[in-house]
UniProtKB/TrEMBL annotation:
Domain of life: Bacteria
SUPFAM superfamilies xrefs: Alpha-L RNA-binding motif
Biased composition annotated in UniProt, kind: Basic and acidic residues: 96-107, 122-132
Species of the source: Nitrincola tapanii
NCBIfam families (UniProt xref): PRK10348.1
Family: Belongs to the HSP15 family.
Domain RNA-binding S4: 12-76
SMART domains: S4
Stretches for region Disordered: 83-132
GO terms (BP aspect): cellular response to heat
GO MF terms held by the record: DNA binding; ribosomal large subunit binding; single-stranded RNA binding
CDD domains on file: S4
Stated name of the protein: Heat shock protein 15
Alphabetical keyword list: DNA-binding, RNA-binding, Stress response
Amino acid sequence: MTQHYFHTDHKVRLDKWLWAARFYKTRALAKAMIEGGKVHYDGERAKSSKMVEVGALITLRQGFDEKTVRVLALSDQRRGAPEAQTLYEETQDSLQAREAKAQERKLLGSAPDQRPNKKSRRELLRVKGSWD
């Protein structure tokens, strides 16, 4: 018998909710991202002590991706990923934008076929050295 750990009637801090929803590995990292302006609550910069409400829109950046999620439930406990995914729902606009950006990155950024050999490495160093 599984016991649900999420609630809709109590309050949870933003940093704790982001950690419980498994967007960040630690609360300290979640707090650093909030303070760095990487997380917006209902379109505005927030503090880590902001109390999360059900139905709120949270926009957060993770690496190259920017996600917009709607809060469906509250939790202050970190559990497995399948349970954590029930706390939020990503908006359709966010999904489409992330897929478009991923496709763009895939087309633009191609890795070199091989490592540079000694001659090409020296040429690279010569070019880089002239820019300093």
